[in-house]
Amino acid sequence: MDLFEQLLTARGLSGRARDAFLNPSYDAKHDPFLLPDMKQATDRLVRARNNQEPITIYGDYDIDGLTATTVLLEAFEKFGFERVDAFIPNRFVEGYGLTVDAVERIAAAGATLIVTVDCGSLSQKEIVRANELGVDVIVTDHHNVAPVQPPAVAVINPKRLLADYPGEYENLLLKDDSKSLYPFLDLAGVGVAFKLVQALQTRLEGLPVGQEKWLLDLVALGTVCDIVTLVDENRANVYWGLKVMARAKRPGLKALMAVAGVEPEKVNARSLGFGLGPRMNAAGRLETAQHSLDMLRAQDGLVALEKAQQLDILNVARRTEQDKIFKEAIVQAEKFKSDAVLVVSGAGWNHGIIGIVAAKLLERYKKPTYVLEEMGSEAKGSARSYGDFSAADAIRASDDIIIKGGGHKFAAGVTMPIENISAFRARVNEFYVSQKLFNQANLLLPKADINIARLGSVDETLLQQLDQLEPFGSGNPEPVFRAENLLVINTRRMGAESQHVKLEIQDGAGQSMQFLAFSAPQHFFVEPGEYVTVWFQPTVNEWMGRRSIEGRLLHLESA
User: Fold this and answer.
1) Do 387 and 465 share a domain, yes or no?
2) Which of 260, 292, 446, 465 is exposed most, by the fewest CB atoms within 10 A?
3) Which has the closest alpha carbon to 553: 538, 536, 532?
4) Average of per-residue pLDDT across 367-393
5) What average pLDDT score do residues 518-543 get?
6) Of 264, 268, 260, whose CA–CA distance to 312 is shortest?
7) Helix or strand or coil: residue 37?
8) Averaged pLDDT for residues 515-542
9) How many domains does the chain have?
10) 75 shares its domain with 192
11) pLDDT, the chain, mean
């Protein structure tokens, strides 16, 4: 059995499951009317279309919300809606989700219907206020739901089914496909908006069945960047969305790929997550996400390029500010490095960026991390966690000393009086101790799919086979290989601060390969003559017309 077949077997892919995974079918899509309240939503939208009511699509400032907003704007235009606009909240003004102030402004502008994307499931008071102002609300979302739904015309959220039928699902997939329930619950916000489009195709003319596939580039971008699992419907949408993107028909994305150095014919999920995504997110982190929406909506190539270049400039500024905050945070983290949970804070730390800094500190110190921006008398922060420690539960355990907070297990937000930062640090560390967690750092180590005996077996043929597993992401990570008893024959430090390392390593048969690690931990800087075990992902390095196979070094242990 060759390495590729070993890999498929290790991932449980055989028989029909193997074929379905390697050849995702868009036509296997699920019935949108199995989602909660889909009929009520389509009925209301058909009435709005017949009466040409003014409609506002209420988005979000992240990529999922921006792509979902664009999907509905374009689809509604095809369906013949003539009075539709979009409202993208500003992170520094409205903050996340629906707000009463925004609802009042939308109502004052004359809208009679708000359609949310990627938000709204918990917006009870905001939707009550909309109703008082004579504005109906349709929620499309994928976040956590309330025990009782807000008084919207419809709340289309797959997670409602998990709340109502918890025993019917495992890992967000329906266990028995004979049940009349929506089979897959981990759609991104853009995925839910796309299901609304599919439902409207059964009721309205203007977007013939099949033509909605040209929206899949947006669906793919939002799905990958929101880090939902790339299985089932998500895998098919991203697989075919990448093919749409490779055609580069959308001026905005074509321009963004150009400034990001992404060749359309080579676009993959990694391109979206590390090339396009950060540039689009930079707008909302530093100024306003409206810049990104304008880029997505641009019809003229020169305008699109101008918008994409603006996002690129913002992304450079974001990286510069992020590096500055990160360095300052490290100085402070060193003072508390004996803590199980890091809590650091500083004045002027842009709260659009501190979430990234928290993730980088977690990676460096292997600890759950809260990073707070000090603003006047309050501190507002973002948390990142991993393993068995819930960042959100630790915040709930601090309810008496914070102003507000919440989120998820691995990512959360919190606001507190500045004078309570020390108390909060003590409280979350006490909470960690109370959880009796052990060996958490080991959970961050890569898990190998298979072991390989010879480096020479990692060749061009294998890499071409691995391409069949794209798109990679949550639920379908890039394969990781493990090789042991390898001899280090050369070590090269790189970077302005010698922070990167390139190793030349040889197996017992005398075959060698280069392994590269950026911002490598100290124990990666081994000396020639040492024997090591490595965990890596194979990549192709193209330089001056020459191709070679390298390993992206993920972990190293000395023999």
Assistant:
1) no
2) 446
3) 536
4) 94
5) 92
6) 260
7) coil
8) 93
9) 3
10) yes
11) 94
> DSSP label at 251?
H
- DSSP letter at 478? P
SS3 284: helix
Other C-beta atoms within 10 Å of 300: how many?
10
In the block, residue with structure tokens 């009721």: 203
Query: Does residue 23 lie in a domain region?
Result: no
Which amino acid makes up residue 286?
L
CATH number at residue 77: 3.90.1640.30
Please give the DSSP secondary-structure letter assigned to residue 392.
H
Residue 427 has pLDDT above 90, yes or no: yes
Residue the block writes with tokens 């979350």:
428
- d(CA 544, CA 67) in angstroms, rounded, equals 37
Structure token digits, residue 504: 């030349």
Angle 292-294-296 (CA atoms, 0-180°, nearest 5)?
70
In a domain, 331, yes or no: no
**Amino acid at position 94, single letter:** E
Q: How far apart are CA 136 and CA 366, in angstroms?
A: 46
Evaluate whether 557 touches 532 at the Cβ level (below 8 Å).
yes
DSSP type of residue 457: G
Could you count the other beta carbons within 10 Å of the beta carbon of residue 85?
Answer: 12
Mean pLDDT of 35-41: 98
Which residue range is the domain that position 389 belongs to?
336-441
Contact 401, 427 (CB under 8 A): yes
- Tell me what the mean pLDDT of segment 501-513 comes to: 94
DSSP sequence for 171-204: TTEES-TTSSS-SB----HHHHHHHHHHHHTTT-
Nearest Cα residue to 478 out of 384, 385, 541, 551: 551
Q: Is 83 left (phi over 0), alpha (psi -120 to 50) or beta?
A: beta
Q: Which residues pair with 174 in a beta bridge?
A: 169
pLDDT over 90 at 281, yes or no: yes
Give the integer Cα–Cα distance in Å for 455 and 95. Answer: 50
Top pLDDT among 90 and 312 is at: 312
Q: How far apart are CA 344 and CA 48, in angstroms?
A: 50
Q: In angstroms, what CA-CA distances link 54 with 111, 134, 135?
A: 5, 12, 10
> What are the C-alpha distances in Å from 542 to residues 230, 547, 549?
28, 5, 9
pLDDT at residue 445 greater than cutoff 80: yes
Q: What is the pLDDT of residues 204-226, one digit of tens each?
A: 999 999 999 999 999 999 999 98
What predicted TM-score, i.e. pTM, was given to this entire model? Answer: 0.91
